What does this fold into?
Amino acid sequence: MAANILMFCQGTPVASLTVRQLDDKLKKLLRLRAARHGRSMEDEVRTILKAAAEDTSRDILEGFEPRAQSAQQRSPAAEAGGPRILLIIGGGIAAYKSLDLIRRLQDRGTNLRCVLTQAAQHFVTPLAVGALAGERAYTDLFDPQSEFDVGHIRLARDADLIVVAPATADLIAKMAGGHADDLATAVLLATDKPVLIAPAMNPQMWAAKATQRNLAQLAADGIHRVGPNAGAMAERGEAGLGRMAEPLEIVVAVEALLQSAGALSGRRVLVTSGPTSEPIDPVRFIANRSSGKQGHAIAAAAAAAGADVVLVSGPVAVPDPAGVTVVKVETARQMLDAVDKALPVDIAIFAAAVADWRAAEPSAIKIKKQNGRTPTLKLIENPDILSTIAHRKYGRPRLVIGFAAETDHVIANAKIKLAKKGCDWILANDVSPATGIMGGDSNTIHLITPTAVESWPPQSKDDVARTLIERIAAELEGDKR
Ligand code: CTP
It folds into this structure.
């Protein structure tokens, strides 16, 4: 790919820049970013260049004109009503990075308030945090001044997003347990706003069963996470997974969340997920290896974007996503019935791995062995739920999206499926055992529309879900224009 960019000064072109020799991975990432933001590739590159130039120029300028850090100073964008972020700083060595995080968030025009836990004050002082944030830092649940000023309920409500960085093992455990014995945990319990945690801890603590149990609980509660990264620890000679994500990575995650928050508000979304289970007799059934992770992640991302979500799920081990109405079914026919009852919706996403066949005559009693004779199982085809809904003349959702689980000729087969099923988009993925996609945590998607094929880089199923929701929001936004 070559990106051609003309630079203008007051309407007059001053420079033209051609970027060549971008490697395939970078091209893919750029294409994905552009798709996410609903921009052309050229616009996306222009936006990245602008942000980078502004960022570095500010640093250069500061070298000549150091900025006064008055506690009263706020960036004009923040004064003008930028997004409101409450940063909760936990007590870990990574707390020193939160000072950089404050600066970077402010540079992006956010309106920032900070809370420090008691442990955090061993690593950074409320004075330093308050000076950088431009407002006194909050520390005590029972501080008469802060309760008079704002109070923990208002701290929780007056934010568009709460960021916990660093999120220590202890803070994560308290969040998972619903504790509220200090200002940070009371705010976290009192909020109905999205929460992003940036965990930071020793690798042993990260790997501990209790921590992993708590993280699973937070994921089920709809808490978002960035990091941790692998690398050297503060303790000499220790390395592994547990380093807090870098401030810039946290900023990127914050921007993604702020962008998606409310993107689907007022929309009704239906998602099918998991396998179906078709009885042969009371103890045996036909099913498949679908875990429901991808469908559930999509339902969670749609809810985080403000949609009213109904999730129709076959039998799965993953927890119900927070803020979603879940209808549990077993068979394909029950799934179709539940889908019908959930209509009308604006967007229907069919991520379930529906069993194509069921036993023609399931036995009411357990089928016994028959002295060496093997029984014959007669199968009949199940209804195709996606195709049924996509071909509806009346009450068809605005956007009908299917998945194509393929093991060969992935894109070609998915294009055929798109046409045959009559849906608007197909997300094609290679489910060959070697890919580990079925049941795994990551996915590689090709988004197929009637006019284009967009190949997304390999990413976690949560990121696939967020990318899809952003694409959907951009598509619906296009309807208004
Ligand atoms: N689907 C459905 N009802 C079915 C079968 C599939 O709603 N009875 C949906 C799935 O949820 C998915 C899409 O159709 O969105 C494609 O599913 P897939 O298993 O890839 O394809 P099949 O239609 O089953 O075709 P084949 O197994 O021949 O590839």
Remarks:
- The pocket of cytidine-5'-triphosphate is lined by residues 272, 332, 350, 352-354, 356, 382, 384-386, 402-405, 417 (CB under 6 Å).
- The chain has 17 helices and 23 strands.
- The two ends are 30 Å apart (CA to CA).
